[in-house]
Amino acid sequence: VHGVTPEYVARMRELGLTDLDAEQITDFAIHGVTPEYVAHMRELGLTDLDADQITDFAIHGVKPDFVAGMRQVGLPDLDADAITDFAIHGVSVEFARGINQLNFADFSADVLQDMRIHGVTVEQAQRARQAYGDALTAADVIEMAIQGTLRKLRS
User: What pTM was computed for the model?
Assistant: First the structure.
């Protein structure tokens, strides 16, 4: 069913997923979770992912290069929930890199997610930084987006 073979199940068990039930294995197959995908995530240090987290990653399009990219941007300790939230809210590696390059003192995973939730773009954050200087925080930019003043800044 859905391409689940004894070899597929055996490979998942070899990767440490020894307690998968039939529904979880079927969910993996439906959402395209391969043993190679799980192995890549484990190689990136996500060794404690459970079946639901792996399925969430697959549903929301989380790829190993996304996780690796976030680590290169300066977010080495993202947990599974933060990674899934990033995928849901559209926090891309490019967005994270662009915001990080603005050197906000309060740069964090929560800031990135809040920026995307409130529609902040890298370009808007750059304009705000240019207009208000280095004292401006990422939280200030988010507040400006909420208040509607961010979009009024001109380049």
Answer: 0.88
